[in-house]
């Protein structure tokens, strides 16, 4: 369970990183929309796990590797934005948030399951 302090600081980081990626992310990820889906902060506020979702890209592994390659630059820009709100800029660890892909996969499976009984009924098979 995260403390109120951790949640508040995570929200600040999420908001500021979203602005950084929106305004300056095109320099290292052209034509890719990056969404900060979640930020988790350690109890001492020294490490932040940032979960990213990429849109308009074919290779999310390449995208996350590019973000990790620019980690120092992103952290520097974050530090410039939160310098009055935090004593130390947290170490940033970026991860791919595959929640949307998982939801789409599950929806596809449920649609497939829902269609199977109807197809058997249409073929004239008795389900009992």
UniProtKB/TrEMBL annotation:
Where can this protein be found?
Cytoplasm
Among the GO biological process terms of this entry, one is:
maturation of SSU-rRNA
The answer to whether UniProt assigns keyword rRNA processing to this entry is no
Q: Name one GO molecular function term.
A: ribosomal small subunit binding
Q: Which UniProt keywords apply?
A: Cytoplasm, Ribosome biogenesis
Q: Which GO terms describe its cellular component?
A: cytosol
Q: Which InterPro entries match?
A: KH_dom-like_a/b, RbfA, RbfA_dom_sf
Q: How does it assemble?
A: Monomer. Binds 30S ribosomal subunits, but not 50S ribosomal subunits or 70S ribosomes.
> What the protein does?
One of several proteins that assist in the late maturation steps of the functional core of the 30S ribosomal subunit. Associates with free 30S ribosomal subunits (but not with 30S subunits that are part of 70S ribosomes or polysomes). Required for efficient processing of 16S rRNA. May interact with the 5'-terminal helix region of 16S rRNA.
What HAMAP family does this protein map onto? Answer: RbfA
Tell me which family the UniProt entry assigns to this protein: Belongs to the RbfA family.
Descriptive protein name: Ribosome-binding factor A
Q: Which organism is it from?
A: Pedobacter frigidisoli
């Amino acid at each position: 369970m995260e403390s109120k302090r951790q949640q508040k600081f995570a929200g600040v980081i999420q908001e500021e990183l979203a602005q950084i990626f929106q305004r300056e992310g095109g320099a290292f990820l052209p034509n890719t929309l990056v969404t900060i889906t979640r930020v988790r902060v350690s109890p001492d506020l020294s490490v932040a796990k940032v979960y990213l979702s990429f849109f308009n890209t074919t290779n999310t592994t390449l995208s996350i590797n590019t973000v990790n390659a620019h980690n120092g630059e992103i952290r520097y820009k974050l530090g410039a934005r939160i310098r009055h709100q935090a004593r130390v800029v947290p170490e940033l660890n970026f991860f791919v948030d595959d929640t949307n892909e998982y939801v789409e996969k599950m929806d596809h499976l449920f649609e497939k399951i829902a269609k199977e009984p109807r197809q058997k009924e249409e073929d004239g098979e008795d389900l009992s």
